Amino acid sequence: MVDKRISWGFYLLTLVITIIVFTSGIFFGIYINRVKVSELQNMVSELDKKRTEQELNLLLTDYLPNKTCDVMNYEVEKMIPDINELAGKVTFYEETKKFEEKNYEDTKIDYTVNLIRYWLYLEKLKSNCDLNVTTLIYFYSNKDCNLCRNQGIVLDYMKNKHKSDLMIFALDVDLELNSIDMIMKSYGVREMPSIIIDGKLYDGFVDKETLENLINPPSV
Amino acid sequence: MNAFDIVYLFSYFVILYCSVLWFSVFFVHRNTIFVNPRPKRYPSLTVLVPAYNEEKKIRKCLDSLLNLDYPKLKIMAINDGSKDRTLKILKEYEKKGVKVLSKKNSGKADSLNYALRFVNTELFMCMDADSYPSPDCIKKMVGYMEDKTVAGVTPALKIDEVKTFMQKIQWVEYVFSIFLRKLFSIFQCQYVLPGPGSIYRTQLIKELGGFDSKSITEDMEIAFRLQSRKYNLENSIDAYVYTDAPSSFRDLFKQRVRWYRGYLHNIKKYFNLVGNPKYGNLGVFLIPINFVWIFVLFVLFFIPLYTLVSNFMTILNVFSLVGIPPINLSLGFDVMYIDFYSFFLLTFVILSIATILVSLSSSREKIEFKKRYLFYISYMFIYPFLFSIFWIFSVFYEIRGAKRKW
């Protein structure tokens, strides 16, 4: 019997088509990732705009004849869900991303700077306008922090439960941002996760019950 | 990108490559697929029916054989030491022209070899006692045998009665196999001459020493043996043979583990074919890609399983930390939730649907979505999982060296 034929033509044609479809899929993935980052960037810009406006309002009150605390506190109440939504999307993005996008680092820094500035703003509002919001700073790392995942779950729960009464500022220490280092040094943060609630440091993982008592101290 | 992603992308590439390959072969040959060569003459042919405890099904089988539209036909039934009334029923059919042989129980391959001694026709066809050929089936197949390089012709198998859930899944699988078997025959890389309904040359099989009675899949072993001697195997896409399919998971599991272990065993036996360009597409493409497929099946099984378990662990963890968390479902489209793999998933779904549609048209079946939507859905989503399980167990048993049995 003679040797059998090999259909090289088909194999080659198929290889070409497969590579085209496959790379289209990869490029789609890269494209959609870029769209996501620019979506995050847009939301950060939006946050930046609103925050600047609110800070301006606070500066204005010093020169205005009547106090306008009501308006400002109301603005904060509206703003907190927006920031929470953005924070949720940042977390989701980081959990599901398949590769590092260059622009993302800048967006993340931009986002974190905005968080820190808004924290300052809320602290000022709390002393000037009796704003009734608990502020919570949460230091985390995506690299070497075993309990950060669990702390994140507990904080997510608190966020959903307290809505506008609680503002969580999750700061990623891997960013190596100067201001984050300063806050950490000043409070003496040594381990991850760490939490600062209304100016007091709590080192290590804090469980649901403890956190509940810290946010809403039981009335004596 | 972690290791899972790389493995996923690799598997996707393999699946895509094979799909594109078979679709392009189909596309190029779309006009000739349904054309069977017209036979110049009708060679004499014997149908061999080995039967072991088949009292329930043998009548329907013999009736359909007597109903075959073919001029020079002999029917030979072999009672393989049945303990039930099979022999008695066979005797009834002696009056209608069925030749009946009876011997001690020795297995299917040995029964066929025994019967071959009495066969004096140019060709013979094997038929399982639980299978029923359509009347025109032999006429559609014998034309291929006029080419001297052809040693065997395979029919198109369909499931006779679809009752249980397992049979519904297999119904689509069989329809897909009709399509695939034809494409394999175009590529000259068929490696099974299915038990029910394949046609052979009597002289050639006798010279080769008959069927391998040690093999658990003698219909695959003979195909590999013919391939190793560079004979061609053809297929008629519309020579229908209806067969019984296992109705329960247990029976299907047993059947498939036997088939796939038979495959692995034959690969071991005919290892010189692997990667050997002398054996054409079977050697350089089909057998090597089957190895890759086994790996892909492991991936398709273990990664989803791992994901499922780890998701479950996460849920448990959340539960232990905060109890049942409030669920806030946000409906509506958001670009953030489009997955990296969306494009791949979409092509995947399109390919599966296209495969089902092409298979249906190849086997001349209508879609009948209302009646068969469960068939299609379970084939798309449950079958791959089952298929993986069968393969994993087959490989496991074969490595561990468990006793092969029928």
Q: Can you describe this structure in just a few lines?
A:
With 220 residues, chain A is of the alpha+beta class. Helix content of chain A is 65%, strand content 10%. Chain A contains 6 helices and 4 strands.
Task: Tell me what you see in this structure.
- The complex is a heterodimer of chains A (220) and B (406).
- Chain A has 220 residues and is an alpha+beta fold.
- Helices cover 65% and strands 10% of the residues of chain A.
- Chain A is built from 6 helices and 4 strands, in the order H-H-H-E-H-E-H-E-E-H.
- A 4-stranded mixed beta sheet of chain A has the order 2-1-3-4, with helices on both faces.
- In chain A, helix 2 (69-96) runs antiparallel to helix 3 (102-129).
- Chain B is built from 13 helices and 8 strands.
- In chain B, helix 1 (3-28) crosses helix 10 and helix 6 (165-186) packs across helix 11.
- Chain B is globular.
- Chain A binds chain B through residues 1-7, 10-11, 13-15, 17-18, 21-22, 24-25, 28-29, 32-33, 35-36, 39, 89, 92-93, 96-99, 150, 153-154, 156-157, 160-161, 207-208, and chain B through 1, 5, 12-13, 16-17, 20-21, 24-25, 28, 149, 187-188, 229-232, 277-285, 317-318, 321-323, 325-326, 328, 335-344, 347.
